[in-house]
């Protein structure tokens, strides 16, 4: 029997009850939200369950929602069941003033690189990550560039003014 | 039967610098002779990071043939180069590497900045891209374009040749030059 979204949802609700919220299926991809401190438990369950078998972490990144006070940073996990070729996605939300999320490196080695990248661009502090330092940007950078807290153009710039660039 | 042999006798020679000439001797200034030799045997170091590098490859290939200007010897060791050709976007993370390459070059050295990105950051008006390589190293000639055509790169190269040919032999030891380098944090 094919692994459908209904089966996955039923299994997850059996295990975690109403802790998992915001069930949606955009373009047929099952998506839900988990509490921040439950992310490893959900990942471990999805990994270990003999039916679900989500043993491949496709992607991990963050999204900044400046208007969601108290839960500005969303960390999104994309998981893939390679046996049944089914993908799901789930999010945890963190406060931007204390963006601590448990690291998934113990479960997925591939999370190592992706969590470093997410830290680099969004400043998510992955607790338990073995080497959480910048990976793509210059080491001296003292801000997180993908957060939506910067004006589009540095207003103090004088070398690229409207006169020269026609904007 | 022997094959007909053709010799290329349309060899173009550079003109001798002006000076005083008589039987078996010629007197001119050392500066002019050195300039003449230098400008027609520039060894470029291509520092190509993106699409302008592709245009440079076209410039170096037979159709445009930068060898016509005495620059066929691309060197990939900065220590033996005269001209650093920076072609492409230089990210902030690449900046120190570019500067190190420049520092490894021996004097006299020139820098040709090819394309909008190397000159000013170009369309990459963003946190990760250096807004012009002249923020970290001195640039002699800027070639605009996104990317510039090979003709434009050749034109920039000829402008460099002009600078090389007319440069005073005392320039590189002068205070003004040292002050300029000090402005970039180079001793």
Overview of the structural elements:
The complex is a heterodimer of chains A (167) and B (187). Chain A is elongated, with a radius of gyration of 19 Å. Chain A has a single domain (5-146), classed as Beta Polymerase, domain 2 (2-Layer Sandwich), CATH 3.30.460. Chain A contains four helices and seven strands; from the N terminus they run αββαββββαβα. By secondary structure, chain A is an alpha/beta fold. Chain B is an alpha/beta fold and 187 residues long. Chain B is 33% helix and 13% strand. In chain B, the strands form two sheets. Chain B has a four-stranded parallel sheet. Chain B has a two-stranded antiparallel sheet with strand order 1-2. In chain B, α3 links the parallel β4 (83-87) and β5. The radius of gyration of chain B is 19 Å and the shape is globular. The mean pLDDT of chain B is 91. The chains are: A alpha/beta (167), B alpha/beta (187). At the A-B interface, loops of A face loops of B.
Largest interface: A-B, 9 and 9 residues
Broad CATH class of chain A: Alpha Beta
Q: What are the low-pLDDT stretches of chain A, counting only 5+ consecutive residues below 50?
A: none
Structural class of chain B: alpha/beta
- What's the story with the biggest beta sheet of chain B? 4 strands, parallel
Helix content of chain B: 25-40%
According to CATH, the homologous superfamily of chain A is NADH:ubiquinone oxidoreductase Nqo5 subunit
Query: N-to-C SSE series of chain A?
Result: HEEHEEEEHEH
Strand order of the largest sheet of chain B: 3-4-5-6
CATH class group of the domain at 40-162 in chain B: Alpha Beta
Note the beta-strand portion of chain A: 25-35%
Mean pLDDT of chain B: 91
**CATH architecture grouping of the domain at 40-162 in chain B:** 3-Layer(aba) Sandwich
Per DSSP, the total helix count of chain A is: 4
Q: What CATH architecture of chain A do you see?
A: 2-Layer Sandwich
Number of strands of chain A: 7
Report the uncertain regions of chain B.
Answer: none
